[in-house]
Amino acid sequence: MHPQLAADLDRLPDLLEVTRRHAVTFLDGLAKAPVVPDRPAPRAVPLPEEAAGLQAALRDFAARWEPGLSASAGPRYLGFVTGGVTPAALAGDWLTATVDQNAMSSLDATGQHLERETVGWLRDLFGLSDGHHGALVSGATMSNTVGLAIAREWLGERLGVSPAEDGVAALGTVRVLSGSPHSSVAKGLSMLGLGRAALRTVATLPGREAVDPEALERALRETDGPCVVVANAGTVNTVDFDDLRALAALRDRYGFWLHIDAAFGAFAALSPEHAHLVDGLDLADSLCVDLHKWLNVPYDSAVQFTRRRDLQARVFQNAAAYLGPLGEHPDLVHLTPENSRRMRALAAWFTLRAYGRDGHREIVERCVACAHTLGAAVEAVEGLCLLAPVRLNVVCFTLTESPTAERLAALADGLAAEAFLTPTVLAGRPALRAAFSNWRTTQADTRRIAAALERAVRELPRPRG
């Protein structure tokens, strides 16, 4: 063994304690740290020739890289839809690296048994029936892609072919219909060989991002052969929800595959006041839910569900002498694109076991309350206006005067030390979007963000002319 490896092994308890203290210091500083530091990337250095050990690497990381890291784990990072990491999820993730399991095969099965239990708990959390089977993947993009891959095989089943065996050319022209599809849907169609051009956007209800069921029915009448409908349970800009039961009723009449993108909207099921938004979620043929959003587990983690695990295994089966057979309960290696991945279920298992339904309901309801507080604050600030009602956990707003992408970027830059918001466009209007999903965020944080937003609007240069 290399002498430095041997030395680090001998000192491992002490080195892990040093690392623990460093991590705690970082986390303790989140409340005061600039949310997005204004700092250039450090100068690149060559690969070291000499072994210096873990502690030297930690010192170098702390000096060169850590000062530029955002406070994305903290309470005022409202960009994208980003959760933090609950204490239990952090412990679970640390143990995931510690035990370093291959969770894909029944030949070494404990990891995948734990994942099956975790998926069962998630199914219960979202009010799904036992007809749904699932597996963990890296994020909503991969969850949507897996769902669409199963849908692709279902299309082949309708036509008497198997795209997994015969290739996508055997399907001919494919149509995928959606009202406000997330960008990952088009990306997934590209990766699956169906092509971005297969996606047809259907009219939404007036002033909404929810699909118009009548417009969808007209599109279905005009579509030859079987097709796929991607429904939304929580759109990115305004957290709008399609009428899932109405879409399922259309599915029963027109015979399409119903995929529901519920990346973070599925968590509405935890709140009695908002559970009606996801009424009909269980009717999906396939379903996407992101876990590193509102479940607050580390990047990267999501879950996909489907009622047709047989088709899923047909797509993703991996034949090798060292892998188990498909059987009634296929190994995880046969269910997702990855043959190798860490035991990412452990972080989700820990947070679900530690805080249960009640603890995660409290996170959801607190985030929703904070979003409403910020929404009210936006309405009270001269120069700002909401672009949509605050339905759940996202506040979408713009400038009342000259709302250009450049001025909104300047507004976001003026906020960067206090809060991080991401730009968007809604109905052709540039806007900013604040998404609440971090378990640390409180009303005090929200008031601080609102005050910073008011200052930033005041200090924004007036538009020319």
Automatic annotation (TrEMBL):
Please verify whether the record's keywords include Lyase: yes
Query: Which residue positions does N6-(pyridoxal phosphate)lysine occur at?
Result: 293
Keyword Lyase in record: yes
Q: Name one GO molecular function term.
A: transaminase activity
**UniProt KW keywords:** Aminotransferase, Decarboxylase, Lyase, Pyridoxal phosphate, Transferase
SUPFAM superfamilies the UniProt entry points to: PLP-dependent transferases (SSF53383)
Q: Where are the transmembrane segments?
A: none
Q: Which Gene3D superfamilies match?
A: Aspartate Aminotransferase, domain 1, Type I PLP-dependent aspartate aminotransferase-like (Major domain)
List cofactor names only: pyridoxal 5'-phosphate
Listed GO biological process terms:
carboxylic acid metabolic process
Concerning InterPro entries, the annotation shows:
Aromatic_deC, PyrdxlP-dep_de-COase, PyrdxlP-dep_Trfase, PyrdxlP-dep_Trfase_major, PyrdxlP-dep_Trfase_small
Family listed: Belongs to the group II decarboxylase family.
Q: What is this protein called?
A: Aspartate aminotransferase family protein
Per the UniProt entry, what species is this protein from, by scientific name?
Streptomyces inhibens
